[in-house]
Amino acid sequence: MKTSTVNLMLNVMIFFLSAIIIYLAYSIYINLKSKPVEQIEHERTQVPSEIIQVEVMNGCGVSGLADRFTDFLRNENVDVVNTGNYISFDIDKTMIIDRIGNIANANEIAGILGVSSSNVFTQKNEDYFLDVSIIIGRDYYKLNPLMEGE
Question: Measured between alpha carbons, how far is residue 33 from residues 28, 29, 96, 111 in Å?
Answer without folding.
Answer: 8, 6, 25, 29
